[in-house]
């Protein structure tokens, strides 16, 4: 019996011994794996995450402060001086420390009354005693600050902040643009503020130094100090007085003709400098956040190409004359229409003019006359000529969102229909700026100038760097330029441009009433038109190129009754403003 009990006892302890060994192996394996993971993690952190943890460690004992650069200002030309158009202005921010407020109800009433805030909302913020800092209102007025300070409210204080301010409000707003918050301070959004942001913004600096456990500077340690580099200021080519007057005239005309939008450009043909660039409706950049329709920020003069219509005809004429294919006296017989590829192209209102000279073609704006010239040039010659004038590519003006228009309809040289319609400005697109630049080439003797929006740069040290006008290329000869100018004078005297004339001066130009292409499908919108007039003066020594464009005017059909008289008003102002002496009798218009 005893023997049996010993044997039984021995057998009973054997499984326990085996389980212990297994558990030991298991734990050893687990500890080994954990050790490997820890070692691997340590190696990873040492090799791959070292820089990040060094940076975090430095943040614990290094105090750093950004030093913001001052943004450069933007000015317009103003006689012999300049007019500040975008400046930096100091405003005050009113804030409150809730835990310092003794009577939240009374303070909420006083603050909300002075700052025009909701009393209940202010009271709720003041009652949150755990909130260390609560902004009441940004950009408070001097009067609001004075009234609050008179109350001497404990816990209410002020901080200075620098904001961008536009003294002339909506004047040239689409050219100027505005600024908004960025990662390193304010950045330009739209307009010159955006396209010249790198120059205007400057470079921020910083100062950093080690600190003790209490967060105080350690005076004996090295300090890393990089001074900020303030931004450069720029003076635009825009003339303040001209810009103001052009906007005024354009706004009055836009209201009169009930147009959806309008644009006007004034350029110096010899330099390409843009003296005025007006597009309506506009906005106030000081309150850009209140603008619900974001399309108001878009500068139609450079960003919205359109089918220009008959103001393209002088370009086609210049190409024909320059190639020796036609002369002002060259005649052809107009039958009223031209058929091509199953389509019939007619003159406006179905008119037939019979035997007509090239001068008469421009005077009467005869479509078939343009087709006559295009056929003589050939499709490739005509297309290459348009490209020389800058159509189909951006002008290169340093403004954001510029479009280059389109000559895609002319890709297939074998299809003549598109070339015929393009000869009188249909089926191709261009921006007002492209057209103004092309007319500038006709005015200055045949040289295409790059449009220029910045006149000079004022560096942070006060030195000035002028922006030199740039010639793109010669597009036609000086002789061709002179002949086309004389023909365009005849348009103003004898043709559809009579209402653009200014008594005493040789004003030249051409009307254009274009159809509005449907979006996403072929054809044109019924009842919608775009009226334009482009020209220059004085003919013998052109000082100004002016282009006026109205989108969908409601009370007039033809550009000669909308864009032409508006052009005339602008040109008359310009000639008087620059004190250019009349060269012709004031009693009658001159023909040459």
Distance between the termini: 147 Å
Mean pLDDT: 88
CATH architecture descriptor text of the largest domain: 3-Layer(aba) Sandwich
| Tally of individual domains | 3
What portion of residues is helical? 25-40%
- Structural class call reads alpha+beta
- Percent strand equals 25-35%
Number-wise, the strands total 23
Main β-sheet: number of strands, strand sense, barrel status? 7 strands, mixed
CATH class call of the largest domain: Alpha Beta
What is the alpha-carbon Rg in Å? 36 Å
The backbone outline, from C-alpha atoms, is: elongated
- The number of helical runs is 18
**CATH topology tier name of the largest domain:** Beta-lactamase
Task: Report on this structure.
This protein has 592 residues and is an alpha+beta fold. The chain folds into 3 domains: 2-48; 98-154, no CATH class; 237-577, Beta-lactamase (3-Layer(aba) Sandwich). Helices cover 36% and strands 25% of the residues. The chain is built from 18 helices and 23 strands. Strands 2, 3, 4, 5, 10, 18 and 19 form a 7-stranded mixed beta sheet that branches. β11 (261-267) and β12 form a beta hairpin. α3 (104-115) packs across α4 (119-126). The termini are far apart. Mean pLDDT is 88; it is low at 1-16.
């Amino acid at each position: 019996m005893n023997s049996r009990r010993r044997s039984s006892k021995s057998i009973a302890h054997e499984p326990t011994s085996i389980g212990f060994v297994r558990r030991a192996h298991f734990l050893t394996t687990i500890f080994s794996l954990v050790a490997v993971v820890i070692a691997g993690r340590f190696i990873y952190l040492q090799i791959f995450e070292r820089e990040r943890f060094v940076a975090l460690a430095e943040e614990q004992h290094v105090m750093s402060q950004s030093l913001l650069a001052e943004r450069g200002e933007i000015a317009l030309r103003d006689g012999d001086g300049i007019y500040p158009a975008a400046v930096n202005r100091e405003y005050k921010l009113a804030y409150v420390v809730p835990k310092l407020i003794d009577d939240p109800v009374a303070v909420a009433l006083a603050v909300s009354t002075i700052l025009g805030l909701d009393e209940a909302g202010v009271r709720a913020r003041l009652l949150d005693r755990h909130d260390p800092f609560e902004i009441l209102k940004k950009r408070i007025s001097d009067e609001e600050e004075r009234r609050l300070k008179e109350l001497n409210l404990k816990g209410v204080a002020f901080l200075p902040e620098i904001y961008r301010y536009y003294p002339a409000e909506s004047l040239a707003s689409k050219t100027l643009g505005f600024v908004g918050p960025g990662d390193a301070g304010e950045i330009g959004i739209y307009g010159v503020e955006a396209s010249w942001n790198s120059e205007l913004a400057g470079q921020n600096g910083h100062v950093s130094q080690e600190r003790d456990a209490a967060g105080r500077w350690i005076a004996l340690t090295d300090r890393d100090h990089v001074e900020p580099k303030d931004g450069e200021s720029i003076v635009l080519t825009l003339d303040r007085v001209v810009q103001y007057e052009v906007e005024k005239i354009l706004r009055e005309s836009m209201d009169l003709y009930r147009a959806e939008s309008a644009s006007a450009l004034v350029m110096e043909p010899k330099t390409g400098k843009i003296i005025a660039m007006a597009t309506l409706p506009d906005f106030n950049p000081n309150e850009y956040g209140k603008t619900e329709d974001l399309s108001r920020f878009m500068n139609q003069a450079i960003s919205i190409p359109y089918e220009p219509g008959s103001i393209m005809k002088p370009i086609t004429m210049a190409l024909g004359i320059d190639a020796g294919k036609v002369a002002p006296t060259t005649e052809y017989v107009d039958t009223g229409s031209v058929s091509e590829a199953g389509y019939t192209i007619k003159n406006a209102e179905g008119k037939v003019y019979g035997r007509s000279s090239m001068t008469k073609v421009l005077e009467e704006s005869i479509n078939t006359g343009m087709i006559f010239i295009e056929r003589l040039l050939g499709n490739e010659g005509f297309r290459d000529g348009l490209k020389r004038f800058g159509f189909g590519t951006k002008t290169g003006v340093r403004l954001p969102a510029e479009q280059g228009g389109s000559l895609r309809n002319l890709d297939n040289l074998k299809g003549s229909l598109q070339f015929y319609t393009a000869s009188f400005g249909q089926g191709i697109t261009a921006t007002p700026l492209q057209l103004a630049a092309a007319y500038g080439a006709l005015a200055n003797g045949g040289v295409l100038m790059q449009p220029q929006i910045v006149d000079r740069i004022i560096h942070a040290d006060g030195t000035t760097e002028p922006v030199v006008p740039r010639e793109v290329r010669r597009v036609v000869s000086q002789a061709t330029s002179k002949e086309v100018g004389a023909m365009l004078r005849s348009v103003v005297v004898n043709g559809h441009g009579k209402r653009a004339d200014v008594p005493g001066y040789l004003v030249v130009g051409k009307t254009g009433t274009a159809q509005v292409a449907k979006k996403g499908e072929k054809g044109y919108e019924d009842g919608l038109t775009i009226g334009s007039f482009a020209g220059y003066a004085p003919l013998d020594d052109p000082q100004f190129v002016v282009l006026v464009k109205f989108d969908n005017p409601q009370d007039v059909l033809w550009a000669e009754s909308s864009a032409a008289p508006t052009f005339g008003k602008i040109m008359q102002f310009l000639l008087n403003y620059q004190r250019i002496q009349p060269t012709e009798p004031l009693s009658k218009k001159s023909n040459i």
